[in-house]
Amino acid sequence: MDAVAGAGQLVGVTAATILAAIFLAAVMGRRRRRRQRKAAPESGCGVVDGEGRGRTDIIIVGAGVAGSALAYTLGKDGRRVHVIERDMTEPYRIVGELLQPGGYLKLIELGLEDCVEEIDAQRVLGYALLKDGRNTKLSYPLEKFHSDVAGRSFHNGRFIQRMRQKAASLPNVQLEQGTVTSLLEDGGTVKGVLYKTKSGEEFKAYAPLTIVCDGCFSNLRRALCSPKVDVPSCFVGLVLENCQLPHPNHGHVILANPSPILCYPISSTEIRCLVDIPGQKVPSMATGEMAKYLKTMVAPQIPPELHDSFIAAIDKGSIRTMPNRSMPAAPLPTPGALLMGDAFNMRHPLTGGGMTVALSDIVVLRNLLKPLHNLHDAASLCKYLESFYTLRKPVASTINTLAGALYKVFCASTDQARNEMREACFDYLSLGGVFSNGPIALLSGLNPRPLSLVAHFFAVAIYGVGRLMLPVPSPKRMWIGARLVSGACGIIFPIIKAEGVRQMFFPATIPAYYRAPPPME
User: Fold this and answer.
1) Model confidence at 514, in pLDDT bands (50, 70, 90)?
2) Where does the Squalene epoxidase domain lie (predicted)?
């Protein structure tokens, strides 16, 4: 009997324990569901915070050149990256098609050089300048580099798709199509993003660091910087077929009236032609004003080798336009977030420096993040990453300043002093040797030094004044020379001021330059 009673008690205790466990699990499950509802108060808004997917280290908004390259770079370093891109189909743009040799070197440094393979990319070995029937060839100073190093030109969309594929090949990088509508903030710290999927579902994604790379039309930059966007001109883009450039494997800059025309190969059978139109308005395509303008004003200034193909491209009607934006970097350091790419900093696309700046920035950021194992201390991370804005400045500011200054010098003007500067620039570069190697090394991103830029810019101005003084100086010539120097100062100094004199020329005097990684466990 005692044995039977003991067995009964054991069964009773076991049954009570099981029932208690079931009750406790039910209570805990109910509490967890309440917490999840509080985290997503809006109806239909899901939460992506790591459950079932592996916790995210970094959210990247945008998968263009900057976003895709950054995703692969950080993913390769072991970070868990979630990329949200508005449209995953192959984009079609008329800029972002020429990568300078300095940018190609950064591509190699990031392990992305194979992204210019299998897209019919063309090697670019330098530039040709054309003016009033004269031309001069400026070759990149590539003697000290491996034979593979050169510029590359291609269809922008093909290049981006290759980089997206490369990023998606990493198991810790997730690419998702969705539109980010806002940043999620808590007490001034960005915690993640709110986005809509292709099907219209709304989700919240959380990560310790959000990097916004959503391009020149960014709708998120205002929260992270003080944007001062200038639109000095617009590009009208055409694709020329069945023709050859006067100088194969070279970009061509035609110093036309009223502003430059660019031509460069984008495949083995196609040449991109970009006609610059000053101001923010372009002739209407619907009324035929655009075709008339291109045929009557632009076509007579196109080299004979390209003329027939230029007319054929106009008649075909596949003309694209886009505004050329310029925006100095003016960050508002925000815990939990960072801006990169065209969302952060833009320059006139005349010199093709945008991708070089973006890839250089990625190298800087990668090196800063590499020693960090934990990104959760947002305040310390934000203070540390202020050094990013300082370390990037010499390279970015040199390319930005060169683009803005060259565009203004290359534009025709009714001012005789400005036209003398334009003529002096063409003749200075035509001298060859150090007079062409120095400027082309700046433009190519191979030697982006601010002091070298300023030295060559004012050397052009002094060269122009010297020409005016020959054979005999006169009061009129001296006056034009004085205005030429004054005009040169008026071109370059405002650009340098916007970039930041101290950051550009004396970055080592800024405390953030020496900032050490925060102690993170």
Assistant:
1) confident
2) 207-479
